[in-house]
Amino acid sequence: MTILIDNRQARHIFLERQGLSRPPNRLLGRDGLLELIHDLGFVQVDSIQTVERAHHQILFSRNQTYLREHLAALLEDHRSLFEHWTHDASIIPSAFFPFWKHRFVRREARIRENWGKWQGEGYDSAVEETFRRIRDHGPVLAREVKAEDHKSGGWWNWHPSKTALEFLWHTGKLAIARRENFQKVYDLAERVIPPDHFSAEVEYADFVDWACRAALTRLGFATSGEIAAFFDLVTPQEAKVWVADHREELAEVELQTVEGRKRPSFAFAEQLPSLLEAPEPPARLRVLSPFDPLLRDRDRAERLFGFNYRIEVFVPEPKRQYGYYVFPLLEGDRMVGRIDMKADRKAGALIVKRLWWEPAIRASAGRLEKLEAELQRLARFSGVERVEFLADWQG
């Protein structure tokens, strides 16, 4: 029997799975932060700091007691988290490292095939030399292994040692020990990853089973394609086979989109009763990071919330619909708008340039009060003293 999940229920389920239904002011602490990241599965890292870097804002939007120093301690001191790749650069629980070993093997095969064509001959020696240097002399920044006469440029102009560092990191031989001014400091993975996680081995079948189970648990409901895309660890075909092999554990559900269409998906049968009782999320209005996991799958977000969102960083300015780095706005269980703003730390202000409400959203006095309260919270978190609104910021 296929179970219909109406659109409102579906939104509540996904918000709860993504940590956005928890009380935003409940004291998080360091252990609570580790639990939150574990429950999310990963937190994307990005260098853009228009207001605050993506990983900090993702965590702050879920809990306003989040402290950056707790994240640094978990990454650099306790080593409970490590940085690597999902669909993009991310912070991941170190307990997941044994499963990432399968990704390292697959990634190495692809890199050797593609980078050899791109970089030409001679890069194996750079890889070996770079590995020996770190092994014998300790952690390095990319700039510390750069040839003096090398001119900087994009990825197509990486010097051999930078290419070596990235190869060794992507294939799991190096890990990121810490960051200095957001630049990666590389060290041997065995000196960064806790020994029990570093040495653990997982068989192929167990790897696929874990990757699919962990993804479906964090999504609540999903197609096999969405399961594969969540961590980007297994192929769509592997996820499809896993679904077929585990049908006795899975319930067939139909998700109602915001337009009223029905989309077939799967959920764990034993989890379904609790999923269907997902709580109402807090009614407050929250500013999300453009890289928030709620919106990572743009098509899923559009089906559930009717919210069409694209990052326009790489879109030429004349062709942008909104702006360079525009933040989505979540109110309760609805995406209600987007806002263009920047933290000017020299001026001590969060400067709001423009606000766009979604077509069905009314700019009521109460909604504007909730927005201003959130902007004040975000300003304090970003280290500025006040919020400034430019002329015509409401369009």
Could you state the order of secondary-structure elements as H and E?
Answer: EHHEHHEEHHEHEEHHHHHEEHEHEEEHE
Radius of gyration: 22 Å
pLDDT averaged residue by residue = 93
Beta-strand percent range: 15-25%
* Structural class by SSE content: alpha+beta
Number of helices, counting only DSSP H or I runs of 4 residues or more: 15
| Strand segment count | 14
* Spatial separation of the terminal alpha carbons: 49 Å
The best one-word shape is globular
Portion in helices: 40-55%
Strand order of the largest sheet: 10-11-12-13-14
Ranges where pLDDT stays below 50 over 5 or more residues in a row are: 149-158
Largest sheet: 5 strands, mixed
Give me some keywords for this one.
single chain; globular; alpha+beta; 5-stranded mixed β-sheet; 395 residues; 3-stranded mixed β-sheet; 15 helices; 14 strands
What does this structure look like?
This protein is α+β, with helices and mostly antiparallel strands. It is 41% helix and 19% strand. The strands form four sheets. The protein has a five-stranded mixed β-sheet with strand order 10-11-12-13-14, covered by helices on one side. Helix 10 (204-219) crosses helix 11 (224-231) and helix 11 packs across helix 12. The longest helix has 23 residues, at 97-119. It is globular, with a radius of gyration of 22 Å. The model is unreliable at 149-158 (pLDDT under 50).
